[in-house]
Amino acid sequence: MIGAIAGDVIGSVHEAAATKTKRFPLFTPESCFTDDTVMTAAVADVLLNAGDYTKAFHRYFRKYPDVGYGAQFKLWCELRRTEPYNSWGNGSAMRVAPIGMAFDRLEDVLAEAERSARVTHNHPEGIRGAKAVAAAVFIARKQPEKKEITKYVESEFGYRLDQPLKSVRRTFLFDVSCEGTVPWALRSFLEADSYEDAVRNAISLGGDADTLACIAGAAAGSYYGVPPEITAEVLGRLDDRLRTVVAQFSERFGGESRLTNG
Fold it and tell me: Mutual orientation of helices 209-224 and 35-49 as an angle, nearest 10°?
């Protein structure tokens, strides 16, 4: 979970910057959590407390109303709607990382990922993106050869993961769709040799940087773990409520987000 949140925080200052290099300060004074972190925490809260996704998303939105939500999701929350709005956007994929950490069977991960997506993103692309990311996080926990993750995601979800980032970096554009985000975020992880490298890869595409880095960071955190110095820096940029959710999730489910508050 902290892998996803750290990616969001690191990517936050690059979202509108069209960064096309891996050379940048990992943190700046302006680096902060965005809606990606808040909704990831909301999903974790549901898993911790057997809650309801719609109610949790509404509740977390009210606590953090100004952290960069997409227009449709913001309106859905403001009006407290309970019906999904057929979104194919990457919001379903950026918040799903805790599900990949919380279950012991892949079929349970896939079912819960779909359940978390459907409350807003009931479009097939929104569901596909959430399931692919959750599955990648789950499989990465077992630290297999990366080609196993590639094979599964390509065969089960139809995403193409074989294109090198360097082949698209120069022309890559801002894209908020699952289809335009998930494969490139996962490719950023697959090309990396460390957690930090995965996040830098994702941001260097110059697109929806915080979400690309959030998803890449989720998979890389599950596979490599998150360096303690990055974890400490990110926790320092969360408020007490979000830190508590991260700590409780770590204590319950372990994995890459095993943390202390010291």
Answer: 50
What predicted TM-score, i.e. pTM, was given to this entire model? 0.95
| C-alpha to C-alpha distance for 33 and 56, rounded to whole angstroms | 18
10 Cβ neighbours under 8 A, 6+ residues apart: 26, 27, 31, 199, 203, 213, 217
* Local mean pLDDT, 10-residue blocks, the chain (262 residues): 97 94 97 98 97 97 97 97 97 98 97 98 98 98 95 97 96 96 98 98 97 98 97 98 97 60 29
- Report yes or no: 242 and 208 within 8 Å, Cβ to Cβ: no
Its CATH architecture, for the domain 2-253, is Orthogonal Bundle (1.10)
Decide: helix, strand or coil at residue 221. Answer: helix
The length of the chain, given as a count of residues:
262
- For residue 97, give the nearest of 56, 62, 47 by alpha carbon: 47
Residue 222 neighbours by CB under 8 Å, 6+ apart: 3, 97, 100, 101, 136, 137, 138, 140, 141, 255, 256
Tell me the one-letter amino acid at 76. W
Q: What is the number of other CB atoms lying within 10 angstroms of the CB of residue 124? A: 11
Say whether 22 sits in a helix, a strand or coil. coil
